[in-house]
Amino acid sequence: MRVTRTVKASTSIDGESRHHPPEAGVNTNQRRIPLQAQFSRTLLIAEKSAITVILQAESEKSCRLSRA
Predict the structure, then answer these.
(1) For residue 62, is it within any domain?
(2) Is the pTM of this model over 0.90?
(3) How far apart are the first and last CA of the chain?
(4) What is the DSSP letter of 13?
(5) How many domains does one find in the chain?
(6) Which end of the chain is more exposed for a tag (fewer CB within 10 A), N or C?
């Protein structure tokens, strides 16, 4: 049986990730990697979405200019 725990993370002023509450015997660095991977995936999805929106806007702009 697998137990899943939710770990809340926050970023301090110095940019270091802090986990609350720390679990006894668990290295917080081991949990930081999945959080960074999740952020990277989210950032990549956001960048792809932004590129799609920009390309669509440029295409519509070109169509409007060619009709004018």
Answers:
(1) yes
(2) no
(3) 66
(4) T
(5) 1
(6) N
Domain range for residue 18? 8-67
Strand, coil or helix: what is 9? Answer: strand
Please check whether residue 45 lies inside any domain of the structure.
yes
pLDDT at 37: 79
CA angle 36, 45, 21 (to 5 degrees): 30
Measured distance CA(39)–CA(47) in Å, rounded: 12
Phi and psi torsions of 25, nearest 5°: 80, 5
Q: The tokens of 13 are what?
A: 């002023």
Q: What is the mean pLDDT of each run of 10 residues along the chain (68 residues)?
A: 55 55 56 74 89 93 84
